[in-house]
Structures are given as structure tokens and as C-alpha cells.
Design brief:
The chain has 2 domains: about 120 residues, Ribosomal Protein S5, domain 2 (2-Layer Sandwich), CATH 3.30.230; about 80 residues, Alpha-Beta Plaits (2-Layer Sandwich). The strands form 2 sheets. Strands 1, 7, 8, 9 and 10 form a 5-stranded antiparallel sheet that branches. The chain has about 210 residues and is an alpha+beta fold. The chain has 5 helices and 10 strands; from the N terminus they run βββαββαβαβαββαβ. The protein is elongated and about 75 Å long.
């Protein structure tokens, strides 16, 4: 799944009607509803404030509203764009200021869906990846050099804890665990080992591979 890199808005002018799409990152339905309410207050004089949002690790929560537009011509096409892009954790509100020219059902579908697509292109997307969290323990004599090696490696250090020894929590893709183990053995001379202690979700630029 993906999510937007940041909130933002984008406006399209179609046959004298203004379609203003605002996007926000949201963690749950309360945040989504609050964002929608905020946009409706800000654009109380608009003809319509149509909405769609997708939530959950797999996009399992999906809601939309046509807000007075003909059924299926606004909220549903907005939601379809979010689904087709694989986006979650995101709410969209498209505000329409009517320009006096009717667009017809097909025109409305294209306008509302197009407004969301253009806004997504504008703010950019991040890919959400689930990584294993591995805990590496080292004695204090080894810890300084190991931390330096980790910081310069491709393995993100999430936390360092100073206890009886030094524990490093590191994020590693499941497919890279064997390679990480080999790398760790090489840089520590076999003096440090790791265990999988959990998982985490990170957001990365899809272009980074």
C-alpha cells in the first residue's frame, strides 16, 4: 500500500466550475471526519463538498459521499482513484463551485476522479513497507565500531539502548535477513548476533526500489 507524502490541494477549472481537491494524511476515521468537517466549514458556500477516504494497513476501511451530486458521480470515482493508486491513510475532499454549465453524469465522474488524481500527482506518494525489527547486542568495547558501521549501512537504526550491553534495534526487510546476518558476522568477527524482536512500517519513495 501507499500513502501521500504530505497534505495539499490542487484546483481544476472545468467548464467554469472550480473543483478544489484537498488531501490529508489521516490515522483513523475520527481524523478523517474532522478533516472533512474542516473543509466544509472553510467552503460553506460551495455547491458541493464530496468526500472519500481509505484507512487501514490493507485499505480495508473505505467511505465516500456524493454530497448532493447525482448518486455515484462524485464520491465513488474519488474513492476509485484512491483504490487504483493503492493509497491508504488518506482523506480527500473535492469542493465544487458551480460555474453554471452542467457536466452530465460522465463529466462529473471524470471531473471528480480527475481532481483527486491531479492532487495525488501534485503531493506525491510514499510506499508503506513492513520490515522486521531485529535486535543486535554487543559489548561496550564493540558497540562504538558497530554503531558506526550500522549508521553507514543500508540498515536503519531505530533505537539504541545502553543496558548491561548495548542493544541496537535495526529495521531489515524479511528478504534481507540472511544478508544482514552475514554482514553482521563480517563486521563484528562473529562477536555479535541478532534476533527478530518485532516489525515496523516504514514509508519510502517508490523510486528508491
Amino acid at each position: 500500500m501507499r500513502t501521500i507524502s504530505q497534505g495539499g490541494e490542487h484546483e481544476l477549472l472545468i467548464k467554469k466550475s472550480r473543483f478544489i481537491c484537498a488531501l490529508a494524511r489521516v490515522a483513523g476515521e475520527d481524523e478523517a471526519r474532522a478533516f472533512i468537517a474542516e473543509r466544509r466549514r472553510a467552503h460553506w458556500g460551495a455547491a458541493h463538498n464530496c468526500t472519500a477516504y481509505v484507512l487501514g494497513d490493507e485499505g480495508e476501511v473505505q467511505r465516500s459521499s456524493d454530497d448532493g451530486e447525482p448518486s455515484g458521480t462524485a464520491g465513488v470515482p474519488m474513492l476509485e482513484v484512491l483504490r487504483n493508486r493503492g493509497v491508504t491513510g488518506t482523506a480527500a475532499v473535492v469542493t465544487r463551485y458551480f460555474g453554471g454549465i452542467k457536466l452530465g453524469a460522465g463529466g462529473l465522474v471524470r471531473a471528480y476522479g480527475g481532481a483527486v488524481a491531479a492532487a495525488l500527482d501534485r503531493v506525491g506518494l510514499l510506499e508503506r513497507r513492513t520490515l522486521a525489527v531485529v535486535t543486535v547486542r554487543a559489548d561496550y568495547l564493540l558497540a562504538g565500531r558497530l554503531e558506526s558501521e550500522l549508521r553507514e549501512s543500508a540498515y536503519p537504526v531505530r533505537e539504541v539502548r545502553y543496558e548491561a550491553d548495548v542493544a541496537f534495534d535495526v529495521a531489515v526487510a524479511d528478504s534481507a535477513l540472511a544478508g544482514f546476518g552475514a554482514w553482521l558476522a563480517e563486521v563484528t568477527g562473529g562477536k555479535a548476533h541478532y534476533e527478530v524482536s518485532g516489525s515496523t512500517v516504514v514509508e519510502v519513495d517508490p523510486a528508491s526500489g
